Amino acid sequence: MPNSDTFDLDDFLPYLLNQAASETSLEFQKYYKGKYGLLQTEWRVIFHLGRNGTMTATDICTRARIHKTKVSRAVSGLERRRYLSRRAVPNDRRHEGLTLTRQGEVVYADLREAAFRFDRAVMAQIPRQNREVLRRCLRQLARVGAGAG
Amino acid sequence: MPNSDTFDLDDFLPYLLNQAASETSLEFQKYYKGKYGLLQTEWRVIFHLGRNGTMTATDICTRARIHKTKVSRAVSGLERRRYLSRRAVPNDRRHEGLTLTRQGEVVYADLREAAFRFDRAVMAQIPRQNREVLRRCLRQLARVGAGAG
DNA sequence: GGATATTAGTTGCTTTTGTAACTAACAATG
DNA sequence: CATTGTTAGTTACAAAAGCAACTAATATCC
Q1: Residues of chain B contacting residue A124, judged by C-beta atoms under 8 Å apart
Q2: Is the CB of A18 under 7 A from strand D?
Q3: Using the CA of A75, which nucleotide's C1' is the nearest one?
Q4: Is the CB of B44 under 7 A from strand D?
Q5: DSSP strand E in chain B: where?
Q6: What pTM does this model have?
Q7: Which tens digit of pLDDT belongs to each residue from A47-97?
């Protein structure tokens, strides 16, 4: 039975995840920032709209787990640069449907393609037989975090 | 052979890593923030000093991959609260050795113990036979990121 | 050994995030 | 149908991160 005295913080899962996340995100971040001047949250909003079609800001908050103020600002920025447009939802004027513009779709397609390439480059470091295990584990952790803690 | 058209961004590795990292970090973050009022960078500085003994700020930057301004401010904060002390290095007055104080050691011990518990809680979600694979993959990704990209 | 470059670390300023308070629209309840 | 509560989103203010310029000490190279 392992105990706390032999525990190495370098192996602490949240730490490893953070390190792995920042290392693997860096190149891709340079790409979308350099090419389109996007912030991470902006890219994520594009990604979710591109993937799921029209959504409200709250939909994005829920799916992407981003706080509403961040989404609000990202949406403003993307609207200003004409990457998305807002359209009122009929019977409820509180929320609006957000949709990528033609231009936004183009950016989405490019970044999705780039993401695919980056994903392959990152995965290239992982032995083939572990790749699906890794992705499955991460999906699990991304879903609920530490669970009951 | 997979191609970009069937690629699902929800499976994009950097994205999954970021989501998994933030989900799994949250509870632990509440712990050290709530109990000691530490920021993430401050906790990391404590962690590296506790694990490796006396280090210079640059050592920490290198090992922890944190920018020097962040380290500089974290060190100031920790020194002010008497969690670490600086001591001049003999033949080179540019850098200083940073060491946890007695009090800092106590905090370190507590957080290390807590990290151990959190690690177990997080890992509990992962099938036993995948746990070492997962950690190994993450260590690899944390090391070099996307490599050649 | 004096000019230039490099290394260590800090400070100032700008951008981004986080938190909480706020407006506006709708829903529910008496 | 007014009162209270809830939901959607924005805005204002404070904390933190990022970047670039700066100081100070040492190394290098003519």
Answers
A1: 147
A2: no
A3: D9
A4: no
A5: 84-88, 96-100
A6: 0.92
A7: 999 999 999 999 999 999 999 999 999 999 999 999 999 998 878 878 899
